[in-house]
Amino acid sequence: MDELRTILLAEDNPKDVELTLEAMAENSLANHIFVVKDGVEALEYLRCEGKYKLRKTGNPALVLLDIKMPRMDGIEVLRDIRSDAALKRIPVVVLTSSREENDLINTYELGVNAYVLKPVDFKQFIEAVKQIGSFWAVLNELPPERG
Predict the structure, then answer these.
(1) 62 - beta bridge partners?
(2) With 60 as the cut, is the pLDDT of residue 147 above it?
(3) CA of 48: how far to CAs of 109, 126, 140, in Å?
(4) Contact 42/8 with Cβ under 8 angstroms?
């Protein structure tokens, strides 16, 4: 599978990373997920900077973005993605435990594609992530990248 079908997961909670990878594995997507632990690392990955300067260029099919992360939160990452001509077309789905109305409003104002609350129940969490991965990384048609 080419780089366009990679999913970038920006999540600092190891348990949530494990659950997300398990859910994607059930949908045969786990080997196409790249995990970063904070917003700074997410942007470095997307921009091929820092320790990612040698990675093959190309945008992922989807960014799964937590809001509450160290160094740079998900809202700041989303703002940077949407203001960058090379990144702004990447679908971004916020996958978060934040039930704060301001987070929901701010992310939609910044152009998030979806806002999904992390279900507390394990089976519901697995099902939600499987559906996200199936739609955004398999079914959704992406626009061509412009150079």
Answers:
(1) 7
(2) no
(3) 27, 30, 24
(4) yes
